[in-house]
Amino acid sequence: MEIVYALAIGILAGAGVWLLLRPRTFQVLLGFTLLSYATNLFIFGMGRLALHQAPIISSAFGPVDPKLYADPVPQALVLTAIVIGFATTALFLVVLLALRGLTGTDHVDGREPHA
Amino acid sequence: MNAILRHLVVLPVVVPLLAGAAMFFLPEARRTARVTLAAASVLTQLSIAVGLLYLTSDAAPYIWPEGVGVYAIGGWPAPFGIVLVVDRLTAVMLTLGAVVALATLVYSVARWDRPGQPFHSLFQFLTMGLNGAFLTGDLFNLFVFFEVLLAASYGLQLRGGGALRVKLSLHYIAVNLAASLLFLIGVALIYGETGTLNMADLAGRAAALARGDRALFDAGAAILGIAFLIKAASWPLNFWLPGAYSIALAPVAASFAMMTKVGFYAVLRLSTLLQEYETLGAALFYIGLATLVSGTIGMLAAKHLARLIAYSVLISMGILLASLGLRIEALTTPVLFYLIVSVLTTCTFFMLNGMTDRTRVTDPPVSPEDGVREAEPEPVYVAYGIKQPSIASGEEVGIAIPAAMAFLGMVFVCCVLLVSGLPPLPGFLAKFALLSTIVRSAAASGVPISTWVLCGAILFSGFVSVIALSRIGMRLFWSVAARETPRLRVLEAAPVAALVLLSLGLACAAGPVTRYLDAAARSLHQPDTYIRAVLSQETRREQPGAPRP
């Protein structure tokens, strides 16, 4: 599972970086989206991958072995990162549209390279 | 009483949050109410910051005997819950931020806050993010506060609209989004290795890491450092800054004076806390030197005052980073003093630029490379075909003060002295203290070549800024034929004059200020006090039923 997970992060991040370096604003936006997916998966992975384990430790049944539970902190971090990433992506989209409206082109420099 | 005073720590975050949120509920027409609320909030922050300055000092040992105040949010104990920590350095940064915020707010009321967008709310959120970033003792919380201040800065940056401004804002946002992702990756790596996000807890656990795990932790710390350096605008990650800062409206650019320093603060705080101060050096020194050189070259090339000021921000950043990179502990005090001076200078200079900009009779041809601003900002609403709200920017507010050009010229001269570091103003003291400390400690340890390179670069950058600024100054003030005398409002002139006087006061009171900064630097280099204060049990909330002292 680790290999698949790592490959998924790598492909997402690679595609994201490639798109980020493209000259069109929409490509940049998609690049950010892919990169933030990769980042979120990465944060999640840093809490160690575990199957069928609850993230919340309940001591109702006496002393517990933390090895049986998943780490809840990265999950909370991912939630925060998703929310913040969503908001900033929306903001970027608005600015992107504004630039498109003001300059008539979707190039990041606001003008076509050979125009 | 002491129990109440302990809550002062959280107020610099809560006050602007509440004020900014409350403003959303005020209708557009109630401008006076909004301004009053904003002013009340900023004044409260200033008094709280000064209070914290006093409480963390040795003069008031009865609350925080060691000068470190810890506030556990929600009462959760330290390594698990988020803590806010105030020590002398934090208090200094909070005070500086509040001074800048107050000056910019007064300045912006004169005419800049008119067009429809929620200027004052965003401004409050910006100060909230700044205060939070200085206060927090938790790595992920630091990320959140960074995002808060950046989100507010995106909105402020876009004010005024226009194709050029939107384009440069897009670049600014893109760079900062990428930096935020790097920040997250760094935090995640560090958490994965150490299992904690609390900075104080991190210090102990990082030291105890096994050799094999250490490599991943160092990678995480390095990625985090890159994210901070992007925010601190260090070369080669700083090409967004001149465009973004020079195109922002004057009060916005002035309030951004603190923003690059947050990145520097984070580097300083974490490097001392994690005791990475020694290992960090060499790279940081060369990065700082390159920033300094790039700023100097930029200053020679810039044709417009706003761009020139933006490059002077780079120079100051370069000096700060390179000095940090020399790994001389005694240098921390002059570095902090220089930081204060450079923030005040940048803020004053950007506000001055907003006023001298109006002396231009005809617009120069707008070249996209030069970042020249449009004479009258055209709102972003045009882009969406929305009907734009009325802009009353030509409207006169307040009394026009006489001898406007003389006043502007005087302030300009003061700013030049501050930037280049010439005698009567504290720019000189700051640079002198830096240079003398560098030379003294270099003499003790056999004078490495890097020392002389840095001294030379600092002196040369001062010389270059004199040349570049005099050139601009002659064009602005002596070629009278092509200029008209602007009408200045007291509201605009007063904060600028106040900041100049404040920096003059800083020069006169350099002794006490330096002593305080010295104490701040000393506690910075003895992180044990900080770590003990955060992780000790005393800072817990009082039990609900327990009798109060």
Overview of this structure, please?
The complex is a heterodimer of chains A (115) and B (549). Chain A contains three helices and no strands. Chain A has helices at residues 2-20, 25-45, 72-103. Chain A starts with a helix and ends in a 12-residue tail after the last helix. The mean pLDDT of chain A is 87. By secondary structure, chain B is mostly helical. Chain B is built from 22 helices and two strands. Chain B has a two-stranded antiparallel ribbon. The longest helix of chain B is centred in the N-terminal third of the chain and has 32 residues, at 163-194. Chain B is globular and about 70 Å long. Mean pLDDT of chain B is 82; it is low at 362-383, 385-397 and 539-549. Classes of the chains: A mainly alpha (115), B mainly alpha (549).
Features:
heterodimer; A: 115 residues; mainly alpha; 63% helix; B: 549 residues; two-stranded antiparallel ribbon; 22 helices; globular; disordered C terminus
The two chains with the largest interface, and their residue counts, are: A-B, 37 and 36 residues
Largest sheet data of chain A: none
Number of strands of chain A: 0
| Secondary structure: number of strands of chain B | 2
Gyration radius from CA atoms of chain A, angstroms: 20 Å
Uncertain ranges of chain A? none
Oligomer: heterodimer
- Give the structural class of chain A: mainly alpha
Low-confidence stretches of chain B: 362-383, 385-397, 539-549
* Proportion in β-strands of chain B: under 5%
Rounded mean pLDDT score of chain A: 87
For the termini of chain B, the CA-CA separation is 9 Å
Main beta-sheet annotation of chain B: 2 strands, antiparallel
Shape, per Cα inertia axes of chain B = globular
- Element string of chain B (H = helix, E = strand): HHHEEHHHHHHHHHHHHHHHHHHH
